[in-house]
């Protein structure tokens, strides 16, 4: 596997010779490598969970937003990249799981490194479904434990010839240490870190119009992008308060986070404009404080991440913007003042999948970027606590 290393805005390249295009059943194929999750381990190393997607060249790239089960034109392989403290890639460990596993989440737990995803399996009625899966590996990357749920908690997928797919899916870790699986039809399954089902909610929600966010109080929030309503739930999935927006369809409300004092911060974009909005709520506010920022790039997707005492706002081109667009990062304090700001990606399309904050406040990001040849490569970037670039590494898929 070849790789590129960035430091700041400079680019150092190894191995740029042309490779023959793989073929299967007389169709040209290509591969994408997507950084799904990133953790910092002892000694300053950085481990990145990746998903390699083997697809027909004519098939749309898959960023695990609309995931496609293992069937032509798509095949999946997961692996973990291990980077030295300075960001250089020095080894990659291929997982010994079957190609029927799609990975979405990576985090450090007491007994190792946890991977959460979906395993496509055959149920008793002879139908194939995607069931929640959790595995943990130790520091030597040996399997400590592995579990998947029964088909009772399966997420169905449509298998229509070569257009088989699981609808958009997400896994979110909540502050209780449990994991929320959120997928087709609004089905939510809460798993412990040992893969046991804590609770499940069948729901009747439009997954294409909703996002899920964990909150500091142990609960979570569902954001309805169509009706501009944020629904708040406790850690047992009990629906509590709603936050409603009456903006005559001007905004797409997309994400919510919670400050340590319990106040909420909601983020969204203003449609057909370069503006993004933040709404700050206390627990009892009926009217929010609305703060507007103008971005340097076309933005149709925003996400909030906790970064110590601050919040990190990531502004992205989710696909509706014309042409490529960089990712803009804004670090905000509790007064919503900007304390750090940067962007990366230049004229290429960048997909941001995970953000992790280290013990010293360092910020690690991972995802993928368009190489300009119809294929995506994994991207891992480190910033200090003030959003100054430290290093950046890109890793190509194997060909």
Written account of the structure:
- By secondary structure, the protein is an all-beta fold.
- The protein has a single domain (3-16, 29-395), classed as YVTN repeat-like/Quinoprotein amine dehydrogenase (Methylamine Dehydrogenase, Chain H, 7 Propeller), CATH 2.130.10.10.
- Helix content is 0%, strand content 53%.
- The chain contains no helices and 31 strands.
- The chain has strands at residues 3-7, 10-13, 23-24, 27-40, 46-56, 74-83, 89-94, 101-109, 112-122, 128-137, 143-148, 170-173, 179-182, 188-191, 197-201, 210-214, 220-224, 229-233, 239-244, 251-258, 264-270, 275-281, 289-294, 301-307, 310-316, 327-332, 338-344, 350-357, 363-370, 376-383, 389-395.
Keywords:
31 strands, 399 residues, mainly beta, Methylamine Dehydrogenase, Chain H, six-stranded antiparallel β-sheet
Number of strands: 31
Largest sheet: 6 strands, antiparallel
Q: How many separate structural domains?
A: 1
Structural class: mainly beta
In CATH, the homologous superfamily goes by the name YVTN repeat-like/Quinoprotein amine dehydrogenase
Q: Please bin the fraction of helical residues.
A: under 10%
Q: What's the overall average pLDDT, rounded?
A: 78
Give the class-level CATH name: Mainly Beta
Q: How many H/I helices?
A: 0
Low-confidence stretches: 1-25, 160-164
- Looking at the structure, the CATH topology is Methylamine Dehydrogenase, Chain H
CATH architecture: 7 Propeller
